[in-house]
# Entry
Amino acid sequence: MAQFNLITWNIQWGRGCDGVVDLRRIVDTARGLAEFDVLCLQEVACNYPGLPGSTGEDQPALFARLLPGYMPVFGIATDALADDGTRRLFGNMVLSRLPVVQVFRHLLPWPVDPDKTGMQRALVEVVIEAPFGALRVMTTHLEYYSAAQRAAQVERIRELHAEAAVRARLERELDSSDGPFRSMRRAASAILTADFNFHPDDPLHDRLAAPYGNGVPAFRDAWQVRYPGAPHPPSLGVFDRKQWPAAFCCDFIYVTEDLRPRIAEVRIDQRTDASDHQPVVLTLNADAH
# Structure
């Protein structure tokens, strides 16, 4: 049976629980989990030598070299000037070995919260040609410190999904040339992955799965679809108890309702300590109906 595999992982800029930044270890670990078609990464850095264990390496470029045959898409959330005049970049990344038809990079809301620190967040969206048709894959990393900012980001993600689903339904050729007005392939079917920085019992978890109406397919937590009633295994703090005294789950994969019958497996790996987070693997059956 043909299958589609996706892995999502907050890699903590490649820093393992041993304090070592090793991007090859990240790639090797991911390859050991599944023959992945799409790899979604959070906390990818470029030119940040101040991050523990980092030398300021260009991580998007390194991942592109480590994964030949995969289209690398870097979504910059933070773009700052360094003292030497270079740019410092931090964000999320999607690497796909399936054709990437279109790419969108969305900055998420960052409303002022005077009592909380924080940083700009971004959502990376790619439209790929999956074995079962056009598919949007999105990855992000929501605000950790501010609940108000996190809630605003969830609402924006819902808006972006609804907009894309409606555009997919109304899709038409505006221009047959190769110019920028040419209508490209879009899809209502979608996968949303992230370090959401909320727990499974947080109201925001259910808010992301709230219905839309107007024919827009709602999101569903893939773990809950596959294992109804079973608690999510922890995805953070399994090994790194210095940063995280208690382990819990904050890394989820949501799929639109139409993809539910395709879910073959969802698992949160509990073995690797290559990051403070655990990778999450989703397998879809390509020939399901």
Summary: The first helix runs from residue 23 to 33. The two ends are 13 Å apart (CA to CA). The first strand starts at residue 3 and ends at 10. Residues 3-285 form a domain with the Deoxyribonuclease I; Chain A fold (CATH 3.60.10.10).
